Amino acid sequence: MAAQSGALYLGFDLSTQQLKAIVITSDLKVLYEAKTDFDADLSKYGIKKGVFVKEETRAVYAPVAMWLEAVDIVLQRLKDKGTPFERIKGISGAGQQHGSVYWNKTGEELLGKLKPDETLVDQLAKTAFAHPFSPNWQDGSTQKECDKFDAQLGSAEELAQITGSKAHHRFTGPQIMRMHENHPDVYRATSRITLVSSFLASVFLGRIAPFDISDVCGMNLWDINAGAWSEPLLKLAAGVDGLESLKQKLGTVREDGGGSMGPISTYFVSRYGFPSDCGIAPFTGDNPATILSLPLRPLDAIVSLGTSTTFLMSTPKYVPDPAYHFFNHPTTAGLYMFMLCYKNGGLAREKIRDSLPKSTTTDSWSTFNEIALATPPLGQNSPTDPANLGLFFPLPEIVPNVRSGTWRYTCMSDGSKLEESANGWSSEADARAIVESQILSLRLRSQKLVHSPAAGIPPQPRRIYLVGGGSLNPAIARIVGDVLGGVEGVWKLDVGGNACALGGAYKAVWAIERNEGESFEELIGERWKASEAIEKVDDGYRPDIWAKYGNVLGSFEEMEGKVLAGEERNKK
Ligand SMILES: Nc1ncnc2c1ncn2[C@@H]1O[C@H](COP(=O)(O)OP(=O)(O)O)[C@@H](O)[C@H]1O
Ligand SMILES: O=C(CO)[C@@H](O)[C@H](O)COP(=O)(O)O
Q1: What's its catalytic activity (predicted)?
Q2: Looking at ligand 2, which atom is closest to the CA of residue 345?
Q3: Are the C-beta atoms of 98 and 175 separated by less than 8 Å?
Q4: Structural domains of the chain in order of their starting residue, each with its CATH number
Q5: Whose CA is nearest to atom 7 of ligand 1?
Q6: Where does the pLDDT of residue 1 fall: very low under 50, low under 70, confident under 90, or very high at 90 and above?
Q7: Mean pLDDT estimate for the chain
């Protein structure tokens, strides 16, 4: 039974395929959840899996109007479930990272005077934006711009040192540069640029919200150590229009991840009955919000199995490298978020699932799971059998930066005799091989970040938390434990695919209720009850099996190297 009184907090997650919302109490109990699924509810926009794809240029983008429509739909759904909006004291949330929204002057003005009897989409879609689309994080159209970004500060290493990442296709700086080059008219008609997180915050605030201190690190434009825009990078992106043009469009970055940026726009007060003093806390990126969905300790890792796969850790050490990403922590100065991000996550697994015989149960994953669990590690029935190692990239991948394709290799148990498999293997064997491949890549790239969690235990995460849609899958949980370990086991959040929206809601609680100087970890750590929030889904570290994967890790890296060497741009 929902409590009848007391403050409530609302968290959003504007991700690739859905807009999710979650309402919780001050003591972190989940009361209401609702979502708008873009393909199911808004297919009239012509998108697939939430986006448009232009194969010729590898451009991927989403219509901003669809997101506006999704906001009114999800709030109406919460209302239909009886959500007492009048008790909501604070709102925060998250947006898929890197995407940019190009507002014009009219849009800035309209935001503050929306009529409550008309929808957001009807009032804003046609007039408020200099460009109707937002480049999506799956975009691969900016190689040329990335090369210039990597060169601008001297090298990819230096760019990573300054901004937390080397240049990536999806990062906002290279995307803005491409927009400036291809559509200078759009660039010039733009008065403000927001990220997806600050776009959603702006809609609720009724004016353009500043960037968030964590999400801004996904732009390749922010100097993390200096806490300021990197002027050489801004200059590069703005081209002939000059540094000042871009500075104005970007506006400010809010250093404090908490507090209120201001009260909610009157549109939502009149239309849905929010209280006029409901505070809008800074929104952040979906990955930074995910690390706020539980009090994460050093050496704990989160594997987010959404459309993308990401691997997240919170750490006090800033050790950037071109191979991964560092972001400011969304709430706590002096902490950082370490991240790996893969394009080929959920959709690549779905592709293999769909090539198998159809499931006979209502769970579309049951055949995939049965086969994956019945297949021995690395497909080896005996230690002398060849071990299967594959790469399954229906989309061009981020790590490593290679074209789309499928590669099947084998090696011996000790990693020797790595060779491309002449005849491949059965499609059944792919079910286990794709999950192993995705998790081996996480193990390979997080090796330097982990240390021994206890005497006599090799370096690995302490606990592994699974979140996102794929966290509901027991076979994936088992294989994560097999490959990555986790000496205190593999866990999932009870909130399932809604961890990111939950992180947003926790952020809202902390932002509005914190005492002077009280950290997110202190406030949420005190109120969070593990028994109500998480469930152990696998024992994690099994020494023999974990060692088996360790023996082929070098060959896995070598296989990636061979595939990378075959890339046209790497052939000399
Ligand atoms: N039982 C399941 N097993 C494996 N994957 C699943 C399962 N349920 C959902 N998924 C995957 O979850 C993905 C969506 O995850 P979600 O975290 O909601 O995505 P996003 O936040 O990126 O929109 C889908 O692409 C689907 O493949
Ligand atoms: O590009 C990244 C992170 O760098 C992605 O993780 C996006 O932030 C989208 O995530 P999901 O839609 O999969 O949640």
Answers
A1: D-xylulose + ATP = D-xylulose 5-phosphate + ADP + H(+)
A2: 13
A3: yes
A4: 8-287 (3.30.420.40), 292-344+460-538 (3.30.420.40), 346-447+554-570 (no CATH)
A5: 470
A6: very low
A7: 96
